[in-house]
Amino acid sequence: MLILFFSCNQEEVIQLEEAKDITIEEVKEAFNARKKQNANARTNGSDTSIDILWDLAIYKELNVGDVLFFPTKSIGGEEGKRYVSSGEGTKRFPVDYTSFGRAYKDEKDEVVLEYVMPVPTENTAEFTGYFLVSDWGEEVKQILVYENGNLIGQTNPQSQNEISNRSGGNCSIIDHWWCVQTSVGDRIVATRCTYDGSTMVCEPDELAPPDPSNPGGGGGGSANPSGPNGLCAHPFIEGMWVDCDAVICSENYVADENGECVPDCGENMVLNSEGNCVCKQGFVSDGEGGCTAITTGLEDISNCNELSTRDNFKLKNVVDNYLTKCTNLQIFEYVVGEEKKFCFKIDGTQDVPGGYNYSTSDITFKSSELINETTFGEEFFHGYQDLFYGGLNQYSNVGRSNIEFEAKLYHDLTHGGLCCLAFEEPGTAVFTEYLLWLSEVSNDFTQLPNWSEISDKYFYFMKQFINEKPIYNYPIDYQLIPNAVLNLNDC
């Protein structure tokens, strides 16, 4: 009989050279006799598919005397290995790694062999699942049920089919009642009780092994080699070492750079921070659930082009250069992923270098000379904002200055101090103050800041921006923070 009892008491590991109640030679003899018996009976029990690693066996002194614990190994190579899934179902651990065997002598001084296989059922901090205890044959002697490291039920399958009944094995259920008595004087005239739930209590038997050394993750523990010859500490038996290099991911999962099993998103896709499969950098949606490489750039975002051949060639080179910057590529992929396209035009009547019309999705340049990365980048960012915020038409008045300042802030943060669009007169006090602020919040222009790093001065500089550029003198929306910029990741 096996009970795993999780407590804070540490069991003493007894050295092999001391005299023992049971010897390895006795266990070997019993094991080989059981294997021969099962072979003659043509059974296919545990002892015919796995073997014992005798050199890694350890003794522990328990209430029944000396108990020999030993790791196991599959017979027949990798193709013959058996696996159990972790609680979350993403990893598969070889039975060799999680299971173990043990031997002790009963009251009749006979050797008792037991094989224990943990089967996680849920991913919890401590082990949740059940232990199948067999006699190294086909016979399952006992099932032990654990929830987050606590024994909650046990049964002998030979005598009952339930995991636990109201009084079975070493477990019992205590019913809780809440009672109210009605008295007249000193006499109780009525008692009314209401059922208030039950608690299962399981007591460990005399054969409880020590605490598991690292039972986390719903079973299996850590598979990082830390012991002799690249071995790992057994996840349940403290002081025992096992081969751990065969932990693999379940079907439809792959290992990430941290060795964790994550969903296999497929070719040219990665898992984002929200657990969704998205196109990896340099790829965009093909419209059919897959991803295709960005090849032409301009053609991916253009549905109308009224530029001359020369200007179109110039814009194509501008877009190609724009896509060499990681954060720009994120913006581009977002826009293409939403299947948004633009019409590119020259409009000599406008007063600014570039423009974006959210009603028509036109991106215009004042002249051919202004077809450059700065002008394109700002107007393309406005197209990105149009998608990100669910339409710029809602900011035609209140919040319009927010939209304009955010686009210029993104440019100024990502051009290594070669700026600025928000303030264009170097040497002025506000220009210098703004430039120093950008350098501080971006770690000298090496990363994009988060909101907590810019919130104290963001609206201050927006007001200064409006003072410097009265063309953008619209009411500020103090609830509209620059989430289109904050949504981008450092590369």
From TrEMBL:
Record region (Disordered): 204-224
Name the record gives this protein: EGF-like domain-containing protein
Native source organism of the sequence: Marivirga lumbricoides
Lineage of origin: Bacteria, Pseudomonadati, Bacteroidota, Cytophagia, Cytophagales
